[in-house]
Design brief:
single chain
Length: about 180
């Protein structure tokens, strides 16, 4: 008789259903963040040209207190390629086996990024009317912007983003 009083219909809910619901939510969140995403194809049918803007970090400028010129110096280069050019095909091969994944910046729509390498490479695909079809911005750090949305390359600052950006700079004959 005493056993019957201690058991209620709430017992399975508290000890079975709620933990399973929490575990399901955690697994879905883990899948959302861990799932690898492929870079967009650079030579899509509607793309007529690919614009490349690359910034090369040269180091800090000599400090001049009168002109406030202790800011970092960059060398900016701009190029335009056709989607079937050897450079873009090489970039496609570099990106074929690479992936990125969602991060908190993807959800919060951040514009800031962590980590900066020697190169900052911005690729934009344009159609015949000059409208943007896609854009990919490799920051040289952990963050990559795909269509102006922040994602992450690599895990926990392992240097994968910097290595990828360096490899892209070499593929585009920027180094």
């Amino acid at each position: 008789m005493r056993f019957m009083r201690s058991f209620s219909i709430r017992t399975p809910v508290h000890y079975v259903v709620l933990p399973l619901a929490v575990l399901t939510v955690l697994l879905l969140l883990a899948w959302y963040f861990i799932q690898p995403l492929a870079f967009p194809s650079l030579a899509q049918q509607e793309v007529e040209q690919v614009n490349v803007v690359a910034d090369h970090y040269l180091g800090p400028a000599p400090f001049d207190p009168e002109n406030f010129s202790g800011l970092p110096q960059f060398e900016t280069r701009g190029y335009t390629f056709s989607p079937d050019s050897p450079e873009i095909q090489t970039v496609e091969r570099v990106l074929d086996f690479r992936s990125y994944h969602r991060s908190w910046g993807t959800i919060t729509d951040t514009r800031s990024y962590r980590g900066v390498g020697d190169w900052d490479v911005y690729l934009t695909g344009l159609d015949a009317q000059g409208r943007q079809v896609w854009s990919v911005h490799f920051t040289g750090g952990e963050t990559v912007f795909v269509n102006d949305r922040a994602y992450q390359v690599g895990w926990w600052g392992g240097g994968a983003g910097e290595a990828l950006t360096e490899e892209l700079a070499e593929a585009l004959h920027l180094t």
